[in-house]
Specification:
Chain lengths: 186, 186
DNA sequence: GTTCAAGGTTAATGATATTAGTTTTTGGGA
DNA sequence: TCCCAAAAACTAATATCATTAACCTTGAAC
């Protein structure tokens, strides 16, 4: 391997994530990214097809991180609602730890930035089995979708600064999910 | 009034909305916008401070449109859950009719594009009173937040192409909200 | 030491938002 | 009727992007 590489795809991706998280998505330019990595801008194109492809990779990493954060809570002690509450808590915690990249990943305005939706849906199947314990098998898919919607929607409204009228958001989140599960349990 | 204006802020805004909705947010450039309006790009700056300000105005219009679409259902016949279901249906319908601008409005990745959050929260107060009929006064704020989260989250996941495993999304949406309301009603 | 290909650089292109300075238009006052 | 002031447009220029093409640089293998 002549000419040892100064950078690689991995470091580009993690640096991009950090940069986005600290400066905001709009501030991410390949110029700035290259400067931080100590390299000229066109060099990045040896590892990344385009800025769009880079952002899509960032989004894929976000989803992987998110699922890595919540999956361990699938097989924990307690009944289904208890485990779902733990998953919901971990879900929100992850979003709070990575607010900008989380928001970017779930931003639908640019279709090219979306990871493969089929892959996405597949990762969620184990959670459907858990939800089935609450809603019954028949309704497990719509029940899961509502749960995902509730978690995602709450977190997004929070991150968008739209839940600022006071009150404890932690308990509001848990209360809402508990109510949702109770409603399906009937 | 010397030199009658060829454009005005209003037509810039509506054209921008149309352009975003038809071509996607990323495709909106001031050049293209100016060309459609039959004017050179710098002329836009007489009416709009910056592209960011224009997008914020688009978002404000989106929120106004959304609330205009759901508010009429506040005072309709039936009990509170029935009225909330009508509101939820109208909410989702609006998002489906304006998918791109709805997504843009709720995209938190760029803080400068957000309309005044205080204003936002104020607009939602009448709905809290309705929610109180289901949850009781004490819990009306968290219960409302969960409802908004559920509606918004569901719609966003839909628009982001993340609910593609089949099944009837219309009934999944309504079922989930019904379950949520039932859970609070206990 | 020559070769060769991976990795990096320089230079250039076209699009972008934005600003400064200039020109065009026209209604109201002379 | 003519002029003029100011509103509203325009031209020109700048800086920053992402991206591409063409050219160097390195160092391991022969």
């Amino acid at each position: 391997m002549p000419y040892p590489a100064q950078i690689n795809r991995e470091v580009i991706l993690t640096t991009a994530c950090e940069l986005i998280e600290s400066e905001g998505t709009a501030q991410l330019s390949l110029n700035q990214l290259a400067k931080i990595l100590g390299v000229k801008t066109p060099s990045l194109y040896r590892y990344v097809d385009s800025k769009t492809a880079l952002l899509r990779a960032v989004n894929e990493a976000t989803f992987q991180g998110l699922f890595a954060a919540i999956t361990p809570h699938l097989d924990t002690p307690g009944d289904a609602p208890q485990r779902i509450m733990r998953i919901a808590t971990a879900y929100r915690a992850y979003a709070h730890q990575h607010p900008v990249t989380y928001g970017l990943a779930y931003t639908n305005t640019i279709a090219e930035l979306r990871p493969d939706p089929v892959e996405q849906e597949r990762a969620v199947i184990p959670f459907q089995a858990l939800m089935a314990e609450v809603s019954g098998e028949t309704d497990s898919l719509p029940a899961l979708r509502g749960l995902l919607a509730l978690m995602h929607g709450f977190v997004m409204l929070e991150l968008a600064g739209q839940l600022q009228r006071g009150g404890d958001l932690d308990t509001a989140y848990l209360q809402s999910i508990r109510a949702y599960l109770a409603g399906w349990g009937k």
